[in-house]
What does this fold into?
Amino acid sequence: MPARFARIGVVGAGAWGTALANAAARAGRAVVLWGRDAQAIAAMEESRRNNAHLPGVELDTSVSLSTSLHSLAICDAVLLVVPAQASREVAHALAPHLREGTPLVTCAKGIERGTGLFMTQVLAEACPHCLPAILSGPSFASDVAAGLPTAVTLAAQEVSVAEALATALGSPSFRLYHSEDVRGVEIGGAAKNVLAIAAGIVGGRELGASAAAALIARGFAELTRFGRAYGARGETLTGLSGLGDLILTCSTAQSRNYALGLSLGKSGGFHPTGKLAEGALTASVLVAMADERGIDMPIARAVEAVLAGRVGVDDAIGSLLARPQKAEA
It folds into this structure.
């Protein structure tokens, strides 16, 4: 196990950041967990729990807490666990504190609004002396924090880096598969969030299990078309970070994106849930990027139209059902 990955930094002390900090500690790493809210970090230090975001889960003794980005300078790799649209700002602030060649692993699932850049492209611009990587897959923070069996994908352009990081972070309950298909992993995570909103709408409208299964299948067809157009590998799209994550996120209100769709389906219109749903911020840029390359994504387009308030839920569903008959592809 490479000594350079003995110390892991985690930027972002929400539920997912806390869960990943504990997972890295279970793998035998020394962990620095950073958060910007001094009061919240002080409370976590005192109780050794993240009661605000992950109640009932105790922090591993190998996890130290900090509000200073400079404390991450000693880390051999850093997990960036902040929302997609905040990643550039935080990575830019972090950059002066990291050594040349430090892997910076985004754990966000989205596409940057305004630029249309994928998350590792954002990191490459904001922290050019770092090695961008991504961790993604079917995982809920509560499961990982509790040590329940979970498998995800870690991708980097250099497969040796991805493999070494996967080895350093893996444990019997947290299995990481490594990949060099960075783009495929990014696309799976971003697109499935938008499709999960559609799945939630199906649930909220009580359209039945058959409709839910059809939505996942046809949604995956859209994800696959988009992925191939942007250079993703087929095996990545059918793997953990693509199909695997889509199935999980489209199946339960534990997913914030599904929960948002559920609310939309029940109300028939857009009413924010109060919790961040990455798909709501990704939908417009995903559809715009699909348009640029002539990619047919009717489900994603319907979600974007509902979120933008241009159509109601029932009209969106009706437009999908009224599409011309065609061969399955």
